[in-house]
Amino acid sequence: MSGTSDPRLYQRGPLRTIWPSPAGPARRRSAAKADPEYGVPAVPSWREVDWPSVTHQAEIAGRPVNYVSLGEGHETVVFVHGLGGSWQNWLENIPAIAASGRRAIALDLPGFGRSPMPAEPISITLFAHTVDALCDQLGLGPVHVVGNSMGGFTAAETAIRHPGRVTTLTLVDAAGITSREIAKNPVAQHFAVTVLGGNGAATATNSEGTPRALTMMRRPAGIHAAMAIVARHPTRLARDLLGEQLQSLGSAGFMPAMEAIFHYDFVERLPEIGCPTLIVQGEKDLLVPLGDAYEFERLIPKSTVLTFADTGHVPMMERPAAFNAALLEFVGAEAAPHEPTAEDSPILADGRA
Fold first, then answer.
1. What is the dihedral angle through the alpha carbons of 229, 233, 235, 239, rounded to the nearest 10 degrees?
2. Can you tell me whether residue 304 is helix, strand or coil?
3. Average pLDDT for residues 195-200, to the nearest whole number?
4. Which CATH number covers residue 341?
5. Could you tell me if residue 27 is inside a domain?
């Protein structure tokens, strides 16, 4: 266990308005110095699951929505992916939830993965309505909602718009705080689109017709170049896991969803969230600054922050064992205390991993 290694919550100086995270990218060779727990696969393994047999589609607002459902139990955990992602973002986490005696559901948001574009324009509110409607269609009551990045934005919006649906809320490197400032700064917006809008590059092919992203993933240098913006040490992650993350490359919803993130502001409504909330943050996230986690904590009444040192934007993939342990502890608690004690909650009380 280690404390907050970077005391800066936001970038300093004029760069803060363009790229607010104070974290810098890791060098490829630094992966060899990462601690032994980084990138270790979770148990049980997602590779042992017959995923086609648990993959389904539901019709919501006249369009199919793709989702997986694994496990059974009185409680359900719903996972919501981020921008450019798909349900496969949660491969390291779904089996652990199912093994705990709960049902785990992860969906492809409209316009991503195997879910086609929605009939209505993409928005964060539309995504939240989709999560709620899917739960309705599956006959679920209140559920535990977990979201990463844009999925965290969506999960929080679900708790605001559909408060009866969300038992607990887990925000993993969630967008929605500094992302709202980008729309106010044309330079920042152009920079973000240039850096994040790799949709065209991702779908581009080489002379043999192979997607360029797949070609890059054949060598460590390519893996680092392609994935270092989201994972701190991508070469430490299993290649088959990284390969599964490419399932959503070229999704039609990418650019509309990016616009939706930049142009929606729900900060004033965050105090309306009444359910216990766990805010998980990688300290070295290049996309969402550490300060955003503490701002979420300040604004959401019953919330606590758990940070992971030497971790980027996707802690659930970078440190799945520790992430799963914290999530199961959180959803299993009768109530999530605002200031946990070590006796009540050793992982959450420490506030770091």
1. -70
2. strand
3. 54
4. 3.40.50.1820
5. no
Q: Tens of pLDDT along 301-312?
A: 999 999 999 999
Q: Band the pLDDT of 145: cuts 50, 70, 90.
A: very high
The more confident residue out of 76 and 221 is: 76
Q: Are 142 and 162 in contact (CB under 8 A)?
A: no
Q: For residue range 248-258, what is the model confidence (pLDDT) as tens digits?
A: 778 899 999 99
Domain that holds residue 340: 45-198+254-350
Residue with tokens 């409680």: 75
**Confidence (pTM):** 0.90
CA-atom Rg of the chain in angstroms: 19
Buried-exposed string 65-95: b where 16+ CB fall within 10 A, e elsewhere: bbbbbbbeeebbbbbbbbbbbbbbbbbbbbb
pLDDT score recorded for residue 102: 98
DSSP symbols for 46-91: GGGS-GGGGEEEEEETTEEEEEEEE--SS-EEEEE--TT--GGGGT
In sequence order, which residues have a C-beta less than 8 Å from that of residue 316 and are 6 or more positions away? 89, 90, 92, 93, 148, 172, 323, 324
Distance CA(1)–CA(169), nearest Å, equals 24
Q: Which residue has the tokens 């054949």?
A: 218
In this predicted structure, the answer to whether residue 210 has a pLDDT above a threshold of 60 is no
Number of domains in the chain: 1
In terms of C-beta density within 10 A (0-12 exposed, 13-18 middle, 19 or more buried), how is residue 260 classed? Answer: buried
Residue with tokens 């324009």: 121
Contact by Cβ (8 Å): 252, 86? no
- Cα distances from 325 to residues 16, 93, 329, in angstroms, run 34, 10, 6
Highest mean pLDDT among 3-7, 126-130, 191-195: 126-130
Residue 185, in any domain of the structure: yes
Compute the average pLDDT of residues 34-48: 97
291 Cβ contact list (under 8 Å, min separation 6): 9, 10, 20, 177, 178
Evaluate whether residue 228 is within a structural domain. Answer: no
